[in-house]
Amino acid sequence: SKNDEILWSKLAYTLVLQVKGKNVYVPAWFVSIRHEDKKEQVEIVNAFRNRIITNAAVRKVENK
């Protein structure tokens, strides 16, 4: 909301895909936010696509 505050942000890598047992990572922003009610949360944002991926499941690709 309008009174939320960004506490910190860090650029790192996050796992987004597993292909035949190999891990694929993308750069992502980890952003800590404090809400008006003083609760804090961390959101993960794909740095290539600028989309929130906090709760995205890691996709697995297995070709047999």
Describe this structure in words.
The protein is mainly β and 64 residues long. It is built from no helices and five strands. A hairpin with a 2-residue loop joins strand 1 and strand 2. The chain starts with a strand and ends with a strand.
Continuous helix count: 0
Structure classification: mainly beta
Secondary structure: helix percent: under 10%
Label the overall shape.
Answer: elongated
Low-confidence stretches: none
- Please state how the strands of the largest beta sheet are arranged side by side: 4-3-2-1-5
- Pattern of helices and strands: EEEEE
Task: Give the helix/strand layout.
Elements: E1 5-19, E2 22-34, E3 40-46, E4 51-52, E5 59-61
Parallel strand pairs: 1-5
Antiparallel strand pairs: 1-2, 2-3, 3-4
List its salient traits.
64 residues; mainly beta; five-stranded mixed sheet; 5 strands; 0% helix; 62% strand
Task: Provide a brief overview of the structure.
By secondary structure, this protein is mainly β. The protein contains no helices and 5 strands.
